[in-house]
Design brief:
Length: 350
């Protein structure tokens, strides 16, 4: 199966180009109407921080949201998280967690909000396709100091105090065309709305010159972050010490399978086979059977997947499949973290 960011065939690109121009037109008028005040962004009675991107997935939004929430908690702030809940089977306002309860079925909320709820303690998480309604629910029920909007750079229905945009340092110039011709969700010129740009995964690859050039043209603060591998965990939550040069089968359904594989390699593991599903893929029992077949066919000792994938996989019958998720942590250095927190907590954004 193909990954979410599999390069588009050269011939198909020409077919998709007119659709990309149509998409550009919709974006142009939508953003113009917001800029002119025909479309109104509503204000929430709390500080609002948006963490988003300008491309389709793979930038590390979920680890970044978790990192930011923890950093703000350490500053004594009451934090809440609001997401659309992509791929969920419910509608309307749904409380993922009040900061104490555990999620029983990820399908009610989406894989990423479920993962966020598991990674944070004392942080309420809500999903709602209508962001302002979900934000007011959080305000009424929990009275947070700060609401973090997950994946909201393109969702302008709510005013935000700080717009953080993540850029994957591994991105190639050829992929930076508008959807569906490429992977851009909107033109780079719209980064003028951002207050902070963060290059992610810089320990896997340094940002290409074209990315650095685009960032220089923005007035936003520029920061760099890394992804750090933490530990390997079984479906039952048991940590596993996996030695260097261990042969593994890599399985993921994330926006950046390439980055996942490179992180495994950097951890000292040997990838003997890999399976990449489309981002947010809903695993079935047939998928587990296929993974089991590929695992037995290879000389891998373990199957390694991501934390987001394990949210779905551990609810299926694994039939003795020895599979572990790799924990990933988004990190800024101390100077960059201080700069980001100063922007969020002290500066009044334009």
């Amino acid at each position: 199966m193909s990954g979410w960011k599999k390069p588009i065939d050269h011939n198909i690109r020409y077919v998709l180009f007119p659709l990309a121009m149509l998409y550009w037109g919709v974006l142009f008028w939508r953003n113009l109407f917001y800029n002119l005040g025909f479309f109104v962004s509503k204000k929430l009675p709390a500080k609002v921080i948006s963490v988003g991107n300008i491309t389709t997935g793979g930038t590390g939004k979920t680890p970044a949201v978790i990192y930011l929430a923890k950093a703000l908690l350490k500053k004594g702030k009451r934090v809440a998280i609001l997401s659309r809940g992509y791929g969920r089977q419910t509608a309307g306002t749904q409380l993922v967690t009040d900061g104490k309860t555990q999620v029983s079925d990820w399908r009610n909320f989406g894989d990423e909000p479920t993962l966020i709820s598991k990674a944070l303690s004392g942080v309420p998480v809500v999903v709602d396709e209508k962001r302002h309604r979900g934000g007011m629910f959080l305000v009424d029920k929990f009275n947070p100091d700060i609401i973090i909007l997950d994946d909201a750079f393109q969702h302008r229905s709510i005013e935000r105090d700080v717009d953080i945009v993540l850029i994957n340092s591994q991105d190639n110039r050829a992929d930076h065309k508008l959807l569906p011709y490429g992977f851009l969700r909107e033109p780079w010129v719209h980064l003028k709305r951002a207050h902070v740009l963060i290059f992610t995964k810089t320990n896997l690859k340094k940002p290409a010159p074209f990315l650095r050039s685009i960032a220089r043209n923005s007035k936003a603060h520029k920061l760099k972050s890394v992804f750090v591998q933490k530990h390997f965990v079984s479906p039952k939550g048991q940590k596993k010490n996996i030695l260097n040069r261990t042969k593994v089968l890599a399985v993921s359904a994330v926006g950046d399978h390439r980055g996942f594989v490179q992180t495994l390699i950097n951890s000292g593991l040997e990838i003997v086979d890999e399976i990449a599903y489309i981002d947010h893929h809903d695993y079935s029992q047939k998928d587990i059977e296929e993974i089991q077949r590929r695992f037995l066919k290879s000389d891998a000792e373990f199957v390694i997947t991501t934390e987001k994938d394990m949210i779905k996989i551990d609810q299926l019958k694994l039939s003795g499949l020895e599979i572990y998720s790799m924990g990933i942590e988004f990190k800024l250095n101390l100077k960059a973290e201080k700069q980001l927190l100063d922007i969020i907590l002290k500066e009044k954004q334009a």
